[in-house]
Amino acid sequence: MTTILKTEKLRVEYRSRETRHGVKVALNGLDLEVRAGEVFGFLGPNGAGKTTTMNVLLGFVPPTSGAASLFGIDVRQPIARQRIGYLPELTYYYKFLSAEELLRFYAKIFGIPRAEADRRIDELLKLVELEHARKRPIKSYSKGMQQRAGLAQALINNPDLLVLDEPTSGLDPVGRMKVREIIQRLKNEGKTVFFSSHELGEVETVCDRVAVIHEGELKALGRVDEIRKPHHTNLEQAFLEIIGFQPQVTP
Amino acid sequence: MRNIFAVAGVVIKELYRRKDFYVLFIVTVLICLVMASVNIYHDDKIVRYLKEICLLLVWISSLVIAITTTARQIPAERENRTLLPLLAKPLSRSQLVLGKFLGCWIACGLTLLCFYVFLGALAGSRDHHWPVLDYFQAATLHWFALGIVVALSLLGSLVFAAPSSNSTICFVVVAGILLLGRHLDQVALQLSEPMRGITLAIYYVIPHLEFFDMRDLVIHDWPLIAWKFYGLAILYALAYIGVFLAGACLAFRRKAVN
Q1: Which residues, other chains included, contact B77 with Cβ-Cβ below 8 Å and sequence gap of 6+?
Q2: pLDDT at B181
Q3: What does the pLDDT look like over A156-182, one tens digit per residue?
Q4: Are A205 and A39 in contact (CB under 8 A)?
Q5: Whether B91 and A78 lie within 8 Å, measured CB to CB
Q6: Are A100 and A135 in contact (CB under 8 A)?
Q7: Pairwise CB contact (< 8 Å): B81 & A90
Q8: What phi and psi, each to the nearest 5 degrees, are found at residue A28?
Q9: Exposed site from A26, A29, A105, B47, fewest CB < 10 Å?
Q10: With contact defined as beta carbons under 8 Å apart, do B62 and B146 qualify?
């Protein structure tokens, strides 16, 4: 199977006043490999290094050492981002634009010809169920609608790899279900999806493989059942045991 | 260029969908129309005062639009997190800076076009005189001066943390240059070293925006400035725009996105 995303001994350090040496290690020797066509869940508690990993993969943050590549191209090259779609956590898109205008803007950046962009915009607005609101300014959208507009922008270039940072964060159960259905549909179309989430039930449902990181280090990597099995429990309990969480109160 | 134009298109849409321009334009129009409707002291040359006040309002309004629109561009992208999906696409940071500059500059140009067409129509309806080339020179040089201001504000938005502090500093600097810039060399002569050297250095480093202020040309119907000097003024503006944009691109390259 082709490797789509790869990190090797990835290390990221930030300057910090909180630590004695003035340096905070956000990622420490992270090795990951995501293959074509799989839905890969990236799990970890807050501050574990999930967003930092995504920031390196998207070229926002340079690694201190190690390497990261997308489709075999170093992530520092802008061309590595030609075939990816990215949905950040909680984004407030240009409120003076409509969903249709937003998608047209991003289509222009990818250099998609006008006719193809029109077809793609129609398809995507249908997929994310925003057809009825396509001409309305984004400022009039609910949170769920904004998140679906975000998902549509991530898909405008028909990407081979989708990077989703907590795509269901802040959504109600219906909104979460809709986003999950879209991920499932993309999986059926053979797309590769790399996403971080705190919704472990969702991860259990849609992911082929998962990685658990904690304090910048990889703690577990494998299929969902492989992660769950040694702990004889569900993914949530297994996750808590992997990161070494000790409950203070017994239920 | 495709990416730069795409970014610029969104900036232009933002300007005409926000209220800032309309408010300033309507206020200018109302003040000028009220003034045009009265004939104080029955002076035949009253239209000169009308032009003078109208042009002053146009300069103030255009500077307000240029600085406030530009100063919020990149900070708003960061605050709303739209910078992340934008830079996750095959768009470089320099292209984003250039797109923002082009969008703000074109938006300022469209704003100026509205103001100068209104001013020309109002003054022409009073004195039945249509000096189109005077207006062309005044408006285009004004536009290039705004180009320098837009590039300066864009650089400021990457250096200063808050858009409000950037706007205030830009207003103070631009007003200082317009009011005092041309006198700095004379001030320097009255000072002792090292202040003389410092003041002279400031005089030679600052962009002299007063070169682009052609209000007297329009007000007093002076002859056109020689096209050679007009061209030199444009080259002068382009040089400063280039320096400020290069600074903005460098500052943005070093800035953390998240």
Answers
A1: B83, B86
A2: 84
A3: 988 889 998 888 877 778 878 878 888
A4: no
A5: yes
A6: yes
A7: yes
A8: -130, 95
A9: A29
A10: yes
Alpha helical stretches, state H, chain B:
2-17, 20-37, 46-79, 83-87, 93-127, 132-159, 163-180, 184-189, 195-205, 215-219, 227-254
Q: For residues B110 and B9, give the distance between their C-alpha atoms in angstroms, rounded to a whole number.
A: 13
- Give CA–CA dist B73/B75, Å, rounded: 6
Asked whether this complex has an ipTM greater than 0.95, the answer is: no
Q: Given CA atoms A52, B11, B8, B155 in this order, what sign does their dihedral have?
A: negative
Contact A92/B92, CB-based, under 8 Å?
Answer: no
The number of beta carbons lying within 10 Å of the beta carbon of residue A194 is 25
Tokens of B231: 């061209």
B223 phi and psi, to 5 degrees? -65, 155
Instruction: Match 């070093």 to its residue by tokens.
Output: B254
Write the single-letter amino acid at A68: A
pLDDT at A137 over 80: yes
A92, A101, A109: residue with CB nearest B81 = A92
Res. A222: pLDDT tops 70: yes
B182 — pLDDT class (breaks 50, 70, 90): confident
> What whole-number distance in Å separates Cα of residue B249 and Cα of residue B93?
7
pLDDT score for B251: 92
Q: A94 contacts in B (CB within 8 Å)?
A: 10, 14, 80, 82
The vertex-A50 CA angle with A82 and A17, nearest 5°, equals 115
Digit-coded pLDDT (tens) for B73-131:
999 888 888 888 888 888 889 999 999 999 999 999 998 999 899 888 888 887 777 88
